[in-house]
Amino acid sequence: MYPDLSYLFHDLFGTAPDNWLSIFKTFGFFLLLAFIVAARLLKWELQRRESIGQLQPRRMTVAPGAGVTTADYLFNGVFGFVLGYKVPYAIANLDTWKEDPTGVLLSTEGWWWSGLLGGLAFLGYYYYLSTKAPSDVQPREVDVYPSDRVGPITMMAALGGILGAKFFAILEYLPRFFEDPLGVLLSGDGLAIYGGLIGGALAVFWYLRRNHIPAMPVVDAVAPSLIVAYGVGRIGCQLSGDGDWGIVAAPQPAWWFLPDWVWSYDFPHNVLERGVKMAGCELDYCYRLAEAVYPTSVYETVMAFGIGGVLWALRKRLTPVPGLLFAIYLFFNGVERFFIEFIRVNDRYDVLGLSLSQAQIIAICFMLAGLLGGWYFLRRARV
């Protein structure tokens, strides 16, 4: 359907496909949108928990007159260099960038002269800020609430999630990693969603502990936003045709009343360019699947939004039992993924005589963790 935004704009506004908008891949766009949605929902819920006293602010001293630090110069000088090194090179090689944005941005290719100019420009800007910063403002104490830290929390979740997703994807396809370690590490594909959840959770727990923020109320606040964001991300999977589809669909039954594409879909213009070439197509993405498959991303989107609605409805009632909402999230997340895997395309492993995918094995762990966690948090609340 829409491997990148140029195809979406073509359908909406009639603009030409495969133009400069091709550098914005549909899946990446919805992944970014998922993080934005998650951050917004999380902030609302953290503010609610702060208003009832479950989360307290941390008293911190700020010094407005401290000016720009050496760390500011170092970080922004490096950041400016990277931008200058990569962006002009990517623009000059727009056709390659459109075809493989991640490969271009994560490669070592770039222009040193523009990188140096970018670094100097950022250093000059921060030097200008240092000359304008007031030096006579006294340090003062302010209350910093957890909701004020949604940005860093989201960034930690994103960084940990990407690293975790990549790690679990490497574990699942070790032979491919051993054949080309650097290529696999720097590629934008191969991201396992459960690895992302685990990696993101570890990163957020570390951040909360480091900043003396109680973890259980925060993870309860995170639960609805996590599953809703997952649903948003799955919309990107469906629209781009990124391979997260199901097995070949059975014939549509006579009782089916929803649109045909909800039962089976052949993913025209899929981003993987998998299947058979579409007759008369001269675009960059011209393939559709030879046989229609179950659009499992649609089913997961519906289930994710449904679970998110249940968690959002329960959040106020379960506030007095920290951790319980997150335990319910773990259980429903595991149930959803365990059953959808039966009609998804994935490698299978023999586990005690059962043929299970990696995601199903982790889903079982999630369900058990949810049940045990729910029992523990309820028991602790009654003591």
- Give helix and strand order, one letter per element, not per position: HHEHHHHEHHHHHHEEHHEEH
Q: Quick one: how many beta strands?
A: 6
The average pLDDT value, as a whole number, equals: 85
**Biggest sheet architecture:** 2 strands, antiparallel
Proportion in helices: 55-70%
Strand percent estimate? 5-15%
Number of helices: 15
Q: Rg, please?
A: 24 Å
Strand order of the largest sheet: 1-2
Write down the domain tally: 3
Distance between the termini: 55 Å
Structural class: mainly alpha
Organism: Neolewinella lacunae
InterPro entries: Lgt
GO molecular function, one term: phosphatidylglycerol-prolipoprotein diacylglyceryl transferase activity
Keywords: Cell membrane, Membrane, Transferase, Transmembrane, Transmembrane helix
Task: Walk me through the structure.
The chain has 383 residues and is mostly helical. The chain has helices at residues 5-13, 26-51, 70-92, 94-99, 101-106, 112-132, 150-172, 174-179, 181-186, 193-210, 215-240, 260-263, 296-314, 324-340, 358-382; strands at residues 58-62, 140-144, 276-277, 287-288, 348-351, 354-357. The chain has a two-stranded antiparallel sheet. A hairpin with a 2-residue loop joins β5 and β6 (354-357). α2 crosses α7 (150-172). The radius of gyration is 24 Å and the shape is globular. The protein starts with a helix and ends with a helix. The model has no long low-confidence stretch (mean pLDDT 85).
